[in-house]
Design goal:
By secondary structure, the protein is α/β, with parallel strands linked by helices. The chain has helices spanning about 45-50, 70-80, 90-105, 135-145, 165-175, and strands spanning about 15-25, 25-30, 60-65, 85-90, 110-115, 125-130, 150-160, 180-185, 190-195. The termini are far apart.
């Protein structure tokens, strides 16, 4: 795949920066760097996700799949202070910045880790994700099938996907895979998909 934001150790020369995450209930300044997803601004899809989804469960384990430097996971941690939030990514540079961003924000209920650091038996009350569509369809499907079945009964996942990057076909595939998916919202070519736990 070459050197992308979904590489474990991106080769891009470091160029630290900051971005502001400004939501109705939260304002954080986050450290960023090259070699990770959307280092110059909060991605539009991420912002739409955070503005559109219902409040997360107040308790239990919550997951941000493909967390990058942490805007989704930190929002979960802020909105659900009694929950335990996991931010998962392969990008070690992004994970280190996410940990620093959590410390700066004073959020101690969030853990930024690689996938193998989460016990296999851990389940989740909710999953939020701006999934890494550009890893390719097969890899994306494998990623989603590894994590979405870990939703607890009654749990919901919310995914943001651009229409022109396959949101409608992904919705159909999820439903056909036993993970019923509906379109919760649509804005600026982005779709918010709500995925139910397998019965």
């Amino acid at each position: 795949m070459g050197d992308h934001y979904f590489s474990a150790e991106p080769g891009a020369v470091s160029k630290p920066g900051t971005v502001d995450l400004v939501l109705r209930d939260l304002h954080l300044r986050l450290e960023t760097d090259r070699g990770m997803f959307s280092p110059d601004r909060i991605d539009a899809g991420t912002r739409i996700l955070l503005d559109s989804v219902p409040a997360p469960p107040e308790h239990g384990n919550l997951l941000d799949l493909g967390c990058g430097y942490g805007p989704i996971a930190l929002t979960l941690a802020s909105r659900a202070p009694e929950a335990t939030v996991y931010g998962v990514d392969v990008n070690l540079r992004a994970l280190e910045l996410a940990r620093r961003n959590a410390r700066s924000a004073g959020l101690d209920n969030v853990r930024f880790v690689t996938a193998d650091e989460i016990p296999a038996e851990t389940t989740f009350a909710a999953i939020w994700s701006n999934p890494p569509i550009r890893i390719g369809k097969q890899a994306l499907h494998e990623l989603l099938l590894a994590w979405l079945p870990r939703l607890e009964p009654g749990g919901l996942a919310h995914l943001v996907v651009q229409k022109h990057l396959g949101s409608d076909s992904l919705q159909r595939w999820l439903t056909a895979s036993g993970l019923p998916a509906t379109r919760l919202a649509s804005r600026s070519s982005y779709r918010i998909l709500e995925v139910q736990a397998r019965v």
